[in-house]
Amino acid sequence: MVDVDVIRELLDGPWGGLRQNLRRDLDPDLLAPLDPENTLEEQRRITTAQLLRVTETIGAHGVLDPAEPAKLVIASEMLGHANLSLFVKAGVQFGLFAGVIANLGTDRHHSEFLPQALDCSLLGCFAMTEADHGSDVQSLETTATYDPESDEIVVHTPHPHAHKEYIGNAARDGRLAAVFAQLVVDGTNHGVHCVLVPIRDEAGAALPGITIGDSGAKMGLPGVDNGQLSFDQVRVPRTNLLDRYGTITEAGAYESPIESRNRRFFTMLGTLVRGRISVGGAGGAAARSGLSLAIGHALHRRQFPNPMAGDDELLLLDYQSHQLKLIPLLVRSIALATAQNDLVADLDRIERRRLTDPETDADHDRRELEARAAGLKAVQTRHTTDTLQVCREACGGAGYMSVNRLAALKNDTDVFTTFEGDNTVLLQLTAKALLTRYQTEVADLEPVGLAMFAARQVTGAVIERVGGSGLVQRLIARSRTHEDSPLADRGGQLLLIEDRERHLVDTLAQRMRSAPKDDPIVAARVVNNCQDHMLAAAEAHVERVALESLVEAIDPIDDPDTRAVLDLVCDLFVHDLLFRQRAWYLEHGRISSGQSKDVVRRRADLCAQLRPHVADLVEAFAIPDGWLTNELA
């Protein structure tokens, strides 16, 4: 008999106690979907009221303590199970607005602004994106020019297309904006920095020089007041510059502990990685909620007389086509949840070290975290969008009704693929990190050295493991895999999935090396022509990481029945990865046509073997009934 609690603990990860407390204490009314028949203003008002209420609940569990960096990510993920407007509203306030003050500010900002941001007595905005520059943050056009005569910073929008766009909390509630702008001191542009700019008075009216627009109704997230901001020579004190990485002295000179402008920019943006991790986690939570609804429906809805049911109608989930719709997505959700847990654990470790020892040089760890966060967010949110569409279809007309929540989950998460980083750009960022690691390995090698490097690929060069136990290496080393049976054991499965990432990165690097260093036009053309290759390499990397996280999470399970089911989960995840990419494996001679057909058959067989345990796996998601109560459930 499967022990559901064991699987729940695996999925909950290191912060299971906090998750359980929030399941108990978060009021189901807070997580109820907004009534689509309410006006936009009413939905926004309700969401703001919910934010103030949820602040008390999560604050009581230490979630808002800056010294507990992982807790806010976990709490955000829990909100993502149901009320995505509240998740985004809280994310803007705590993760972005308060987060930028905590991470880019210094002691005076922490004492003056952070307590009010965390207790929501000061609602704020994170004003980065511009109409003409979304993903290209380094090219933002808003300026923050230091005026030495008044000792003030003048924030200005140079033309209409440089206004801040889609800014959460801007249209209705925000009173202070964290504005990203080009910092100009003594005629020199020092690159993008962040300045705190008041935008409304206590009565809610726009301050002089501030123009506020309303983005209006959106495809989803009706409770979030997205808006536009522009600035006409708005003056703020010099001390409103968040100056951890770049300051203006009392003498009016610019100083920074990081000399390189590019490195300073990426260091500042890197401190904001928590928001990206939260979006991926909430997307994963929403996908699990959708699967809970769709699988619950399939376990109760009967359709068409069938001799296999003694001429009674058969349950939807007993049809192979329905199993193939939902069960691979279920196991993919489980694998991505374990990868998310590992990512949050690394975030917690790195952030705690930064808080306790700011001088610690952890550039490598931070870069790895940022690259993995970017790739995992992209893969998770694409999985969310695909999964919720399948879940909607799997519930027929019932899934289309607002009362059954799938519509809200689907519409509210659709933007996740393009905010906190557009997924295509994020996958390119991940690919760039993989290439940087590769370049470090092969830099300046002569042909003989390159041949030796290629020969030792099987020992783990270039591939950087997530888990620290050495389990994956041991499984691969002990693999009994033969060419006629590459999936014979777990080590062989790991090696086959890893092989795709390794090959894609290796061949991508070779293509990139052909770009001439002395001809930027041709070099740019080479890079542009490699973009599909970059995306494939990044996705392969994330899927390999997710498989390793799942293998590591399953390893400690001792209960034989539970372990057997989790091994089936892992087997299906592997076969589903191969099923999705079987054309690549065939084209590159990794499997034969017969083995490809075996993958298709085995994937269906594994779905059938997991069918009796699907209810237990969904129960292990531990989503409280009150969070998803509706007609469908």
Describe, in plain words, how this protein is organized in 3D.
Helices cover 54% and strands 10% of the residues. It is α+β, with helices and mostly antiparallel strands and 633 residues long. The chain folds into three domains: 4-118; 125-262, Butyryl-CoA Dehydrogenase, subunit A, domain 2, CATH 2.40.110.10; 272-464 and 491-633, Butyryl-CoA Dehydrogenase, subunit A, domain 3 (Up-down Bundle). A hairpin with a 2-residue loop joins strand 5 and strand 6 (188-198). Helix 4 (69-79) runs parallel beside helix 9 and helix 10 (320-356) crosses helix 18. The longest helix is centred in the middle third of the chain and has 37 residues, at 320-356. Mean pLDDT is 90; it is low at 444-461.
